[in-house]
Write a structure and sequence with these properties.
alpha/beta, eight-stranded parallel barrel, 17 helices, 9 strands, 42% helix, globular
């Protein structure tokens, strides 16, 4: 059984109806729970009925996060190494139909990027590529992981979904974690956004975290692209996914991210169901009440003010100084036309770290929980 078997027992329309039918009493019942809320109670927390309770949710989220994770904030940086892609995702600048320059960095160019990034204190790197079996196959990714581990202590990836054996191969190369986003869990409308390419296979993508769990990857990151479909319903199915993964693959950590649609090179696709910052904060707090263990990440898609104000309210991981172009750290001006999406928070890593300290937290530049887990095992 995989998550596809679980989600197939639900109706998108019925879940949406239940969320909007939630009452203040349902919200209060969920908030009165002392442990993690159930996925069904999560529905009430992301409903319109919960909006007047946001301050209470935020306080509970803060208390749980500080108790579970301490006064720390993990910082990471994404390194884009290829923008070749065979998919035609209508919302993405890497869409293979977009007439943009394409590049796949050589190992020497990846090393140059690493040297540029190491001018900052980062110790945890996220490798990102477009989805191209030719330009970002497992051999290329494995070699790239080995190259980056000469400069960093941990390397994670956000690339095309693979088979479990491919992930085992990459773990032998030093892979730490994998992030794969379903974009939307609405199987009926999924083809509208993914008309061609391997990403058009809804089920294969959905079952990727199961293959990761089977391969024993240390951490699995999931999420949905906010703006494609009704954000509350997608949030529920993402939460259900987290709940499923934490219970079935309990040795593997889980992370959830909140990517919102950002401007990109292409035909100007606009969000169908935009969520404002208050609603995004509601979602963040609801996830923390769902799971005290899940890591919650906010990227530079969001502006500095919002990111600063979520630091105390459930978020445990943030990116900093991000460039979304291959070669962007060593020569951004020469590569900016390769960009996947435009960054919203363009502060330097040092400026972000200073803001972390100003909010009473300690910036940590690697996945400290990995080392704590290892020490406990010993």
């Amino acid at each position: 059984m995989t998550y596809y078997d679980i989600i197939s027992t639900y109706s998108w329309d019925e879940v949406t109806r239940k969320i909007y039918a939630s009452t203040p009493a349902d919200v209060e019942r969920a908030l009165s729970r002392t442990g993690n809320v159930t996925p069904e109670e999560f529905m009430a927390l992301i409903s319109p009925a919960a909006e007047p309770y946001l301050e209470i949710m935020a306080q509970k989220s803060h208390d749980i996060t500080r108790r579970r994770f301490g006064n720390v904030m993990q910082l990471y940086v994404p390194l884009y190494i290829s923008n070749y892609c065979t998919n035609r995702c209508v919302y993405c600048g890497f869409n293979c139909g977009n007439k943009i320059k394409r590049s796949a960095l050589t190992q020497e160019e990846i090393a140059k990027e690493c040297e540029a990034i190491r001018r900052h204190p980062f110790r945890h790197l996220l490798l990102v590529t477009g989805e191209s079996p030719k330009y970002s196959n497992r051999e290329y990714l494995g070699e790239s992981i080995r190259t980056t581990l000469r400069y960093f202590e941990q390397t994670s990836i956000e690339v095309q979904p693979m088979d479990a054996d491919d992930y085992r191969y990459l773990m032998d190369c030093g892979l730490h974690s994998v992030y794969v986003y379903q974009e939307t869990y609405n199987e009926r409308n999924y083809p509208k956004y993914h008309p061609a390419g391997r990403k058009a296979d809804y089920r294969y993508r959905l079952e990727t975290p199961d293959r990761l769990g089977e391969a024993g990857v240390y951490k699995i990151g999931v999420g949905n692209l906010i703006g494609l479909e009704e954000w509350r319903t997608d949030a529920f199915f993402t939460a259900l996914h987290v709940h499923y993964l934490e219970n079935k693959y309990w040795r593997t950590k889980c992370s959830v991210s909140f990517p919102r649609l950002r401007p990109f090179v292409g035909d100007g696709f606009q969000p169908n169901y935009p969520a404002d910052e208050r609603q995004l904060l509601q979602s963040i707090c609801a996830y923390r009440l769902l799971s005290e263990d899940v890591e919650i990440s906010i990227s530079t898609r969001e502006n500095a003010y919002f990111r600063d104000n979520t630091m105390q309210l459930g978020v445990t991981t943030i990116s900093a100084g991000s460039k979304t172009t291959p070669g962007g750290y060593s020569d951004y001006e020469a590569t900016k036309e390769l960009e996947q999406w435009s960054v919203n928070d363009d502060r330097s890593p040092e400026a972000v770290a200073e803001s972390v300290r100003a909010h009473g937290l300690e910036p940590v530049w690697k996945d400290w929980s990995f080392f704590m887990q290892g020490a406990a095992a010993r």
